[in-house]
Amino acid sequence: MDGGRAMNWRKPLRTPREGQARKLPAWLQKGVDWHAALAPRERTLVWAAALVVALAVCWWGLLSPALSTLQRVAAERQNLDAQWQQMMSLQHEAQALQAQPKLSPQAARQALEASVTAGFGDAAKLQWTGDRANITVTQVSGGAVAQWVARARVDAKAVPVQVRLTRAPGAAVLWNGLISVGMPQP
């Protein structure tokens, strides 16, 4: 309804009267005239060229960026999955450490002393300073240090506070230094 009157949908849209052509912009009119002056074969070639250009624009503007994004997504997903797995393993490790029963300070000291003896043997000396233990190591491998730190965390609930290691003279893969660990609070 328009102003109270029903619209007649059968009535054609306003078209220019006979003799009145729609005015096109001058640049467009020149293109229409140029196209009309071409032979049918040339018109076909112009349309084919326009189609090729349109397809190229669609490819470079729409499809190519989407396809490159899909290729990157696969690699990024693998990276994110690896990070997720690492985070989950750290979470499980933290939950396992939290689930372990609390140790008394004396039991924690005994467990640390046992882990130092088992991990390093005579290559380490243990000294106590309050609630910290200082372990001086000589001629030990990096793997032995890593295994000992993991074992001390689990068995004695000891947390490494400071590690100062230097290469042992004359040995390419052995280390000397000091490892300070904090003991759990009661």
TrEMBL record:
Regions crossing the membrane: 44-62
GO biological process: protein secretion by the type II secretion system
A Pfam family matched in the record: T2SSM
InterPro entries on file: T2SS_GspM (IPR007690)
Keywords in alphabetical order: Membrane, Transmembrane, Transmembrane helix
Region (Disordered): 1-20
Keyword field contains Transmembrane helix: yes
GO cellular component, one term: type II protein secretion system complex
Top-rank taxon, per record: Bacteria
Keyword Transmembrane in annotation: yes
Record protein name field: General secretion pathway protein GspM
Native source organism of the sequence: Comamonas serinivorans
